Amino acid sequence: MGNQENIWLRLRNCLFVIEYKSIDDLKKYIEAIKSVGININECSILAIVESKKEKRLLPEEANVVFLSQQEFNFLGTLKNEQAKKLFSQTFDLQFYTVDPPRRIAKLLNKMKKKMSVGVNCATSTQNVNLKTDVNTPHHLINFAKQTLEKIV
Predict the structure, then answer these.
(1) Which pLDDT score is estimated for 74?
(2) Alpha-carbon distance 86 to 71, whole Å?
């Protein structure tokens, strides 16, 4: 079979789609990403927040885009410039730990990507759908890593 690398080793830039719960939870995701050997500077996190009001209260974080489904106008056009820039990028992997709202999911599905992985997601729009009982950021990302390392 030769000396082929597994999928995980071929990943360079990744997009992590998460539900924003707290700054501490976000920092746990960042630490989990670093702990599995992915360069956080080559990654982005799309943190989905409940409302525009909540988003305004959040501090800016490097490589993190906060997005609320309320940031779409009546015709469905996205008003968040930071998110527009993110949606125009290409990623090796889209990693989901949440089922994004319909309008956000539609934009994510249009993005150029090599692969998408969902962990504990109800929708099946990802290439790989994984299930686990533990929902900590470290476990979710490590679980996906261990699974993708087995795929050549």
Answers:
(1) 87
(2) 15
Kindly list the domain boundaries of the chain, sorted by start residue.
8-149
**98 and 19 in contact (C-beta within 8 Å)?**
yes
pLDDT for the residue 75 = 87
Looking at residue 72, the DSSP 8-state letter turns out to be B
CATH code for residues 8-149: 3.40.50
> Which pTM was predicted?
0.92
Q: Are the C-beta atoms of residues 95 and 16 closer than 8 Å to each other?
A: yes
| Location of structure tokens 């050549």 | 152
Structure tokens at 48: 């989905």
Token pair in block for residue 40: 């956080």
Q: Which of 81, 96, 82, 91 minimizes the C-alpha distance to 111?
A: 91
What does the pLDDT look like over 95-131, one tens digit per residue? 999 999 999 999 999 999 999 999 999 877 888 899 9
Closest CA to 117 of 86, 152, 145: 145
